[in-house]
User: Which sequence fits this backbone?
């Protein structure tokens, strides 16, 4: 009986050790596809979204945030973990998480976008460009697969409000009416 008990403990210990081991590179490569299965938004970098869009065109949803933004953190803790939002984003968009104050350059369509000093902690030129200079956080930008801006949406959003906005974009309602017309009719 003691042998069975010790074998069971050894198996349990080995299982716990394996469960908490760091992931290998091959596992890390699959995290983007497993994120959707685990109930998380498949967040990408700007470059990853551009590459994915080249292979399979899809609309792009960009979450512009900063490290100091409390409402950005609240979006991450509430709206962006809502199962309906997660499923909708992963199905209909390439989702980009973009630090609007990041210092890393982004090269896109022959232009290098850089960090610029100014404001609270400076700003990134790509954020400035896509937000039309309105640098409030959180802010969201929706783009067509051809990188044409569809909508700029500032501020914290609860899950139903964000889903309505995403429906407006993903179902191409923006082609026939304004956001104001759509939001008051639905």
Assistant:
């Amino acid at each position: 009986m003691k042998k069975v008990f010790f074998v069971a403990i050894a198996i349990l210990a080995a299982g716990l050790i394996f469960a908490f081991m760091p992931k290998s590179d091959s596992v890390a490569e699959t995290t983007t596809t497993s994120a959707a299965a685990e109930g998380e938004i498949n967040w990408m970098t700007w470059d990853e979204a551009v590459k994915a869009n080249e292979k399979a065109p899809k609309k792009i949803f960009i979450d512009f945030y900063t490290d100091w933004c409390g409402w950005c953190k609240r979006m991450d803790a509430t709206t962006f973990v809502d199962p309906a939002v997660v499923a909708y984003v992963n199905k209909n968009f390439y989702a980009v998480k973009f630090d609007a104050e990041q210092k890393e350059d982004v090269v896109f369509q022959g232009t290098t976008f850089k960090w610029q000093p100014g404001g609270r902690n400076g700003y990134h030129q790509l954020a400035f460009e896509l937000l039309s200079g309105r640098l409030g956080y959180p802010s969201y930008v929706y783009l067509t697969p051809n990188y044409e801006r569809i909508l700029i949406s500032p501020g914290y959003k609860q899950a139903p409000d964000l889903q309505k906005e995403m429906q407006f974009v993903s179902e191409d309602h923006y082609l026939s009416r304004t956001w104001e017309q759509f939001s008051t009719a639905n």
Remarks:
- The first strand starts at residue 43 and ends at 44.
- DSSP finds nine helices and nine strands in the chain.
- The chain has one domain: 42-185.
